[in-house]
Amino acid sequence: MIELKNVSKVFDNGVVGLKNINLTIDSGEFVCIIGLSGAGKSTLLRSLNRLNTITEGEILIDGESLTNANAKELRQMRRNIGMIFQQFNLVRKNTVQKNVISGRLGYYNNWQTLLGLFSKEDYARTENALEKVGLADKLKDRSDSLSGGQQQRVSIARTIVQEADLILADEPVSALDPVTSETVMNDFKRLNEEANRTIIINIHSVPLARKYATRIIGMRAGEIVFDGPASEATDAKLDEIYGKAIFENEQEAQQDAIKAGIEREVQQDVHNEIL
Ligand SMILES: Nc1ncnc2c1ncn2[C@@H]1O[C@H](COP(=O)(O)OP(=O)(O)OP(=O)(O)O)[C@@H](O)[C@H]1O
């Protein structure tokens, strides 16, 4: 269970990222966080593994304070939190296998890590995880030879081998085309339903949030302005909260971002072919 108690975040330049957030997320929930650009979605998500430090309040995970954890405790807690980013965060020149097995690093000490001494079990875990995301045949491929969607699925495989109970994903489908986005969202769904992982995803697409999440949290200007089951996040309700015109502009901006993502992928493919 994740608990946020009176959580605020003010950045060094005075910008308020989060305003007095009180929130409880139970284990096994599938939550999508929606909201316009600058609403505070990334700030909230990054606070949940302390990539952002909050300036007021406290965050507890399974009863343990993330806010007050010392370095050793934080490392232990982070072992149980997988993080997925919009731009995949893979070591591009490394093989798929090496990127996925790096999800086990939290289980090894520094010298084992330096020597790359992974166990047989971890190599087996890596193969299993890649099978689960349909990429078993890519084990030995260089990560940057894969499409954007495949790279995102490699980063999901990395959280599978990490065996993290909580998976945080910051705009994981923003750079992907609509069909690939559904494939990636289905990976999250399987992890949630079959492995009982808690999933929290920042997402711009309201239709995807409605389709996959069991709970939707809407943010605006650092505050939670909607929190309820996906079925209650109707167009009428969201129009009332955000204003229709603003919301439509946001969807257009999102379409532009998707197009830009596809163009980047095409350029990457051309680049790979040339090489
Ligand atoms: N490192 C930072 N320093 C100062 N201000 C920041 C920083 N990061 C975010 N902000 C500001 O905090 C507010 C919330 O930003 P955040 O990135 O959390 O929004 P978001 O909802 O994730 O937006 P987007 O959908 O565009 O990613 C914005 O006003 C943003 O400009």
End-to-end separation in angstroms reads 47 Å
State the CATH architecture of the domain at 1-80 and 166-239.
3-Layer(aba) Sandwich
Radius of gyration: 19 Å
User: Which regions have little confidence, pLDDT < 50, spanning 5+ residues?
Assistant: 269-275
Q: Which fold name corresponds to the CATH topology of the domain at 1-80 and 166-239? A: Rossmann fold
Pfam families: ABC_tran
Protein name: Phosphonate ABC transporter ATP-binding protein
Domain ABC transporter: 2-246
GO molecular function, one term: ABC-type phosphonate transporter activity
In words, what does this structure look like?
It contains ten helices and ten strands. With 275 residues, the chain is an alpha/beta fold. The chain has a domain at 1-80 and 166-239: Rossmann fold (3-Layer(aba) Sandwich), CATH 3.40.50. The strands form two sheets. The protein has a six-stranded mixed sheet, sandwiched between helices. It has a four-stranded antiparallel sheet with strand order 2-1-4-5, covered by helices on one side. The N and C termini lie far apart (47 Å). The structure holds adenosine-5'-triphosphate. InterPro entries: AAA+_ATPase (IPR003593), ABC_transporter-like_ATP-bd (IPR003439), ABC_transporter-like_CS (IPR017871), ABC_transpr_PhnC (IPR012693), MetN_ABC_transporter-like (IPR050086), P-loop_NTPase (IPR027417).
